[in-house]
Design the sequence.
């Protein structure tokens, strides 16, 4: 299978690239400024904000599956409009799209959230992710939209890096008790996304850990470890 990982140099993207290559697929991955380190992978520079560039790249590689893990929390165009560009390009090439979304599309006011719950984001990033979901659903009704949560793994995630830096006194900051997430290990998440890619499923799926914990509680766990 030919797999294109958009945002392949990120924390999740690198794991998606690694697992796809290990499984023997033909893999290409995009990066904005720096390629990843995985061997046997075609690293392709791409700015998802450039619709023409996205269409040209996807058309040239002609993937069976595109997994879009690209985002920038402070950039609406990358997170929302860029997702629409990827969806348009994937649909035009005849490929299958797995779009990575976030539980940030919800405010956290409810205790639990089902897939059919209407998003009610309270942050610009959550709003951008919610807008991206709408665009993907309209452009590519057969796509998978995988909402995930805080991604961790072996001390290498941004959250774990923050906790270790705070514990060592390398930076100042706080871990909130009212920011509750369902942490998921990057290896498990990547495997689940690739399983969804090879299935006939469509629509929104929640793909996260089983336990709801605050960033403070999770930080204490990482620090103890």
Sequence:
């Amino acid at each position: 299978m030919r797999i294109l990982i958009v945002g392949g140099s990120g924390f999740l993207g690198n794991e998606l690239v690694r697992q796809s290559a290990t499984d023997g697929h033909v893999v290409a991955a995009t990066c904005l400024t720096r390629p990843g380190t995985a061997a046997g992978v075609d690293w392709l520079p791409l700015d998802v904000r450039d619709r023409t560039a996205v269409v040209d790249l996807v058309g040239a590689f002609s993937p069976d599956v595109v997994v879009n893990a690209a985002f920038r929390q402070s950039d609406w165009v990358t997170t929302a409009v860029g997702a629409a560009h990827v969806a348009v390009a994937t649909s035009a090439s005849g490929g299958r799209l797995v779009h990575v979304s976030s539980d940030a599309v919800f405010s956290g006011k409810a205790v639990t959230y089902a897939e059919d719950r209407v998003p009610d984001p309270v942050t610009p990033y959550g709003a951008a992710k919610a807008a991206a979901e709408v665009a993907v659903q309209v452009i590519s009704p057969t796509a998978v939209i995988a909402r995930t949560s805080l991604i961790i793994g072996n001390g290498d995630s941004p959250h774990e890096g923050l906790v270790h830096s705070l514990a060592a006194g390398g930076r100042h900051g706080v871990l909130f008790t009212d920011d509750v997430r369902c942490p998921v290990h990057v290896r498990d998440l990547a495997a689940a996304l690739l399983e969804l890619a090879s299935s006939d499923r469509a629509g929104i799926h929640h793909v996260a850990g089983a336990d709801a914990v605050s960033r403070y509680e999770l930080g204490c766990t990482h620090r103890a470890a």
Summary: Residues 19 and 191 are 7 Å apart (CA to CA). The longest helix spans residues 76-93. The two ends are 39 Å apart (CA to CA).
